[in-house]
TrEMBL record:
Residues 32-158, 212-344 form the Haemin-degrading HemS/ChuX domain. CDD domains: HemS-like_C (cd16831), HemS-like_N (cd16830). The lineage of its organism: Bacteria, Pseudomonadati, Pseudomonadota, Alphaproteobacteria, Hyphomicrobiales. This is Hemin transport protein HemS. It comes from the Bacteria. Transmembrane segments: none annotated.
Length: 353
């Protein structure tokens, strides 16, 4: 439980008092985690289930079309489709369906719940998973054409004996100590050499880990031939051009325990206040543009030529969202995507710091 414990009964009363408030917002109002908010309703439409990624993914395909949701503080990524082409182990799991595409890190899945809301024809069903801090890592929402019987069978399979209304949460693990990078000529040379030698974009994470650098530090250090800062208007411009030119993109949003990917065109982009929304038939994105402190274009070498991403960072230097041009392994980057990113408005390096 959080340090300032709120009794389950008080949480349920608050839920009844603010029935339309989103769980994340109500949890913040009550100074509890979202997992604590959900757990307080065990026996009241909520069932605790094991956060067992292997067993979960093996049972999800039978549910048919559902909505997969992964979010962080600043972006919500929703995909409608079927959980298929699953590979799962205790260390990692991958879903490679035509619509639902996930990279899952099971060690961060600490709490699971099956949630039922409403009644009659308006009843809604979901599976919700949280990390040790009580923050959501991934959710699965049933739709009208989902297989409710398969859902009920899966919940029965995953249900645990402990149906208590409280959970123990702990703060997120501290980030690894990063290298003090500024002005370190040797580190700069090593980073540039290893960056230039990349044959696969997936090697990037191991380079950062070895050099004890954050992604944010690396893009600031590397130099304009590999990363350049973009003007704040570049994100909206990229989306507008991708829609107008029908450029299929890849959009990555991650929590601590899951990265969710959209691959394909975007068609219906709707800014609304600070939110940039995509409302397409099988892909919904809700991005808080006022949380974006810096935008960067990042170029990484691969055996198939370099690939270019647009990356948004918050004020703490954490990655919010990434965009690439759609491509498959073994293919070169799309020329229309590369041209678009290279011609977005830039911030001169001298004033980018």
């Amino acid at each position: 439980m959080s340090q300032q414990t709120v009794e389950p009964e008080a949480i349920r009363r608050a839920r009844a008092e603010f029935p339309k408030m989103r769980e994340r917002d109500l949890a913040q109002k009550l100074s509890v985690s979202e997992a604590e908010l959900v757990a307080a309703h065990c026996g009241h439409g909520v069932t605790r289930i094991a956060p067992d990624v292997e067993r979960l993914l093996k049972g999800l395909e039978a549910l048919g079309p559902v909505m997969a949701l992964t979010r962080n503080e600043s972006a919500v990524h929703e995909k409608i489709g079927v959980y298929e082409k699953v590979t799962a182990s205790r260390q990692h799991a991958i879903v490679l369906g035509s619509d639902i595409d996930l990279r899952i890190f099971p060690s961060h899945w600490a709490h699971g719940f099956a949630v039922e809301k409403g009644s009659g024809a308006d009843k809604r069903y979901s599976l919700q998973f949280f990390d040790a801090a009580g923050d959501a890592v991934h959710k699965v929402h049933l739709r009208g054409d989902s297989n409710l019987y398969a859902y009920q069978q899966l919940v029965e399979t995953l249900a645990v004996g402990d149906q208590s209304q409280q959970v123990v949460t702990s703060p997120p693990a501290p980030k690894p100590v990063e290298t003090a990078a500024e002005g370190d000529a040797e580190l700069f040379d090593t980073l540039r050499q290893r960056w230039a030698d990349m044959k696969d974009v997936h090697q990037f994470v191991s380079i950062l880990r070895t050099l004890k650098l954050s992604r944010y530090q690396a893009v600031h250090m590397i130099g304009d031939d590999f990363a350049w800062r973009l003007d704040g208007s570049a994100l909206g411009a990229m989306m507008s051009h991708a829609v107008a030119q029908e450029i299929p993109i890849m959009c990555f949003v991650g929590s601590r325990g899951c990265i969710q990917i959209h691959s394909g065109p975007v068609m219906n982009v709707k800014p609304m206040g600070p939110w940039l929304n995509v409302m397409d038939p099988t892909f919904h994105l809700h991005l808080r543009t006022d949380h974006v402190a810096e935008l960067w274009a990042v170029r990484k070498p691969t055996k198939d030529g370099h690939v270019t991403s647009l990356e948004a960072y918050d004020a703490k230097g954490s990655l919010i969202i990434q965009f690439f041009g759609k491509r498959h392994e073994g293919e070169g980057e799309r020329e229309d995507w590369r041209f678009l990113i290279e011609h977005l408005p830039r911030v001169p390096r001298a004033t980018a710091a």
